[in-house]
Input
Amino acid sequence: MQNTNNFKVNRSSAGSGKTYTLSLNFIALSLIGSVKYSVEYYRKILAITFTNKAASEMKDRVLEYLEVLSDGKNEDSILDWLKKNTPLAEEQIVENAEKVKISILHNYADLRISTIDKFTYNIVRTFSSDLDLSYNFELEMDNYKIIQPVVSNLISKMSSKGGELSEALVNFALQKAEDGKSTNIEKDLEEFSRNLFNEGAIPFISLNSISVSDCLKVKDRLLDKKKQIVKYVKNHSDMVLKYFTTFGFTKDHFNRGTYFNLITKHLQGSDESKWTPSDALLNNIRQDKWYAESKSDDMKDLVELHKNKFINFIDDLLVLIKDLNTTQSLLTNIYSISVLNELLSEVNQYKKEQNIEQISVFNKKIHDVIVKQPSHFIYERIGERYNHFLIDEFQDTSLLQWQNLLPLISDSVDYGSCFIVGDGKQSIYRWRGGEVEQFIEIPDIFKGNSLKEKEVWENKLNTHYIEDESENQNYRSRKKIIEFNNLFFQNLKNNLSTNLSKIYDGCAQNSDYAKDGGYVHVELIDDQNEGFKENIIQKMISEINKLTSENEFNFKDITILCNSRKRISLVAQRFSENNIPVVSNEGLIINSSEKVRLLVAVMRYLLDKTDNLSKAAICEYLQSETPINYTLHEINLLLKKDDGFTDLLKKYNISLPTEKLLRLPIYELSERLIKKFRIPENSYVSFFLDVILKFSEKKGSNLSEFLLWWEEKKESESIVVPEGTNAVQVMTIHKSKGLAFNIVMIPFNWEGGRKYSEIWVNASKQTNNKLNSTLIRGSKKLELSQFSNEYLEEKNLSFMDNLNKLYVAMTRTVERLYIFAKEYPSSISDSFLSSGKLNAFLHLYGISDIFIDGDPNENHTEKVQKRVKVFSTTSTKKIEWEKVVSLKRSSEKSWDLDNQSSGKDWGNLLHLALSRINNTDEIDIVVDGLVSEGLCIWKNKEKLKSELVRLLSHPDLQEFFDKKWEVKNEKEILTKEGSSYIPDRLLFSENTTIILDYKTGSPHFSHHDQINNYAFILYEMG
Output
């Protein structure tokens, strides 16, 4: 088989332009194909991305580059790149770029750039019968919507008379309580049920078909075994204790007394965690350091005479502890495992009844076919359509996803090509099934032994394989940033295992095209006074104020990258308190507002006057806002009286006529409560009202149902802030992937995250084949257990996860990088260095206290012409019900009603008015309707009318608002490919069709393309 170099892999680092290269490869294949075969050759190319956003951006980039090329321009050197990497002359590139662009716009649905999940979904839809799926199933993307009713149904099967399922569920809750966790069995089961949809857990779950009854029997056997081990440990320690007494051994005979303390204290106690010999003791034994040199010869001689017996005892003890830790690890999740199959059965039944499926299941269904079948019949039609495959972010592609593509890929390299782009250092989605080792091993197939065609496919990939030798340049960051990151990660790669460290080979990037300058500031913050988190936040606030006041940066130039959503909420709250505008889809959780929590507490109180928690929350709020001359003790005494709470409310001039309030719709009730408690203008409250409105529109206005719904959704509903707002961005590192920011700050210490996640293991050997697989909790104890290999592998992978997250975070920045972490502990241990905490990484690199490189006074070089006004929500002064009874806003029309003078909001309002007007006679009716609905404020009524009259009287437009036309405003058009289009205005007469599409702002070539696309669709419709 001839090597055609048709299987190319690009392993470049962050900021090297991988998406740029991928887009140009798509264009190159399209242009070459248009010359050789057909202008529609792009239909033979499939580009696969990781997210919908990435797919959308790549489509936009392809069309933008084609537009640039069709004008003969060389922006971003794209023309030079194509001349170098294709056999086409410049004239051919320019001429065919225009043709391909027009063809794509006329056949946009045939531009195959999509996520791998969407591609998989299309396959499953086509071959639903082959995959044993209902032909009309509905796709459910949110696993929680399946988990919740399934868990609820399982709990409902608990019997008051007991039974094995009831025993398992009760003990499941008790186990969580012992671990110091919540005893909310429903929430815990919901969390555990997520394992059912985890790709990495699928092989283990399929092995485990044990019933509740059999699992509880395994539990009993494990408990018996544990008792036996504990008995052996006690007997052995008693024997050594007697030996000590017989021969006169004391603490002074042993180095630091550690051996003596182990026997006489730790092993005599009931705390099993102290039974394991310490590392210090084991090191002393290995180095034959049994006693201090200062001891008498008699003491030394006595120890020397008996030390072999002591060594034998330690060896026996370590064997017993290993068995004990193994047994205990199997018992930890035994009740969870006992209900696993019950949960799985409930899930399957629920999906069957509801006729739904999940995207997470599709990969497994397709894989089952590929494993069993020598041919790839499922891909016959699809495989013949695509000659070329482009895969982005390959390091995040799961095992099943890649192996499901192999039949297509292995065929394409014979007559087409496959181009893979990825960066193992940015592999941060292992919890979604991404395995970076798969990327390391390419062109070999990682964990592919179950594949019937593995050898054939692997030979093909190796035969056609070539590494993309493009320069590893960084086009994103300034030179100081690149230099620091190069040194940092070259140094830290040595702390990864040999296999995983390969992903950091060649991590140093060239900076030939980078701009000079840049600034790096790394600082360790003490844990004094308010604690390191608050100290770090104050440090960031200080730096932000300096950057915006002295260095000519905008707030929107600055991004804070956190390791968890919990930290995002803390940062967003503190920034807001210090008048720093902040935007975060993850951190501005509506429920984090005490005013929102007050409203919810009052609602709960109205439904249940005995709800003391709600009453306490209301009192706490009132006291914090307007303290009255009462002590907490006096307030508690007052609340115990029948009318005590209402008497307290009267002190604040608040009355709550329950019956009257409960008759109101939820939205109106909320407005009344805001007025009664005199809640000032607040973004959180305004968005809470929007949430209530959306709930009422979809599910009705039942207060009890809303409060139940809110309890489930309160941690996910957040404030939505428009793009372009001049505010500091706060987001998780995962959300930042693929983005770039002028300034990046990485705070805190990455504590409280997933330690070493729970680990699936094969337990057949330990349970006499009764329990084939189980889930054990990762902890240091496993180092001395029969699962030590699995634990150490998970430990290495967890360390790599955090290092990769740090790599992603540190490579997002363009001009400035700040890292603020917790000061080092007083003593540096191996466990600290391998912890994956932020300050541990800094210590491994060699940061002592503070590191600064670059000029702190360097100003922002890209001046912003105009600052965008900070987002503000509707003032609560409009909430009196007589004035807002007709107000009905939804997220689709969520512009600032008090700020309709802004270009964007005025444009939105104008667009809405035009969408309702058929002819000029309807202007007054439409404007009056917008005012009555609360979509246009009263003071803008006449302005809107005059603007519409002026616009529709324009000579170029006047004809199109005449009564002679049949008008279709914003009517949806569905194409035969399933795509949906909504032109703003269509006008029909006997022989003519006119398309109007309203645009505000600057003209763009895409506007013309959109009109052309509408025209082509209407032409196809006849």
